[in-house]
Specification:
It comes from Solanum lycopersicum. Pfam families: CYTH. This is CYTH domain-containing protein. It is a single chain. This protein is an alpha+beta fold. The chain has one domain: Hypothetical Protein Pfu-838710-001. Helix content is 25%, strand content 45%. A hairpin with a 2-residue loop joins strand 7 and strand 8. The chain starts with a strand and ends in a 5-residue tail after the last helix.
């Protein structure tokens, strides 16, 4: 189970302010590309599941993940997640030809997709995706991820923090933002949901 605090920032100016304030705690920045798949008959989405390939930093790494049963409330997201690395060149081939994905016999996740979600002869379809620039910080005992998400219909800005004690992490984050006079709101939808709706949150 992945549990994260998700706080949305209103615009690029606010995002830059947070980035500047956190700069002493910066660890690394990743360029991510997220590509999503579903069954030809919506076998995954009909069961609130999503299959994703995430490419990092010009294909230096690729992670395949299966997420299911998302719940997001008051800025805290809970979702079942399983992930594993695959060869980036294989990942790219699967983006071009999604029928290749179920053929990756070495993948635990693809076995699950076939067995648990009944992906049949029609296989998978590629839904497209979006890009994300993620700056990672170590601050006050928390790992913060400051996201700048590029959809083809607009930009979204968010702070995420995975934590085993999300309420405490959220309190710390909210206090930090309020001290610095930074506007924010609770994220109430996932990045994937925004992508599928083609509409930025208000």
């Amino acid at each position: 189970m992945e549990v994260e605090v998700k706080l949305r920032l209103p615009d690029a100016v606010t995002h830059q302010r947070v980035s500047s304030i956190l700069s002493p705690y910066h660890l690394k920045t990743h360029a991510q590309e997220n590509i999503f798949f579903d069954g030809a008959n919506s076998e995954l989405s009909s069961k609130l599941a999503v299959l994703r390939l995430r490419f990092y930093d010009l294909d230096t790494q690729c992670i395949i993940s299966l997420k299911a049963k998302p719940v997001i409330s008051n800025g805290i997201s809970r979702i079942e997640e399983d992930e594993e690395p695959i060869d980036p060149s294989i990942g790219r081939a699967c983006v071009s030809e999604p029928w290749r994905l179920p053929l990756i016999d070495s993948s635990r996740i693809m076995r699950r997709v076939k067995e648990e979600y009944g992906i049949g002869e029609k296989g998978l379809v590629c839904l497209g995706g979006f890009r994300n620039v993620r700056a990672v910080y170590e601050w006050s005992g928390l790992k913060l991820e400051l996201d700048e998400t590029h959809y083809d219909f607009g930009m979204n800005y968010e702070i995420e923090c995975e934590s085993s004690d999300p309420e405490k992490a959220k309190d710390l984050l909210e206090e930090f933002l309020k001290i610095h006079g930074i506007e924010y709101s609770y994220s109430n939808v996932s990045k994937f949901a925004i992508f599928r709706s083609r509409k930025l949150p208000q």
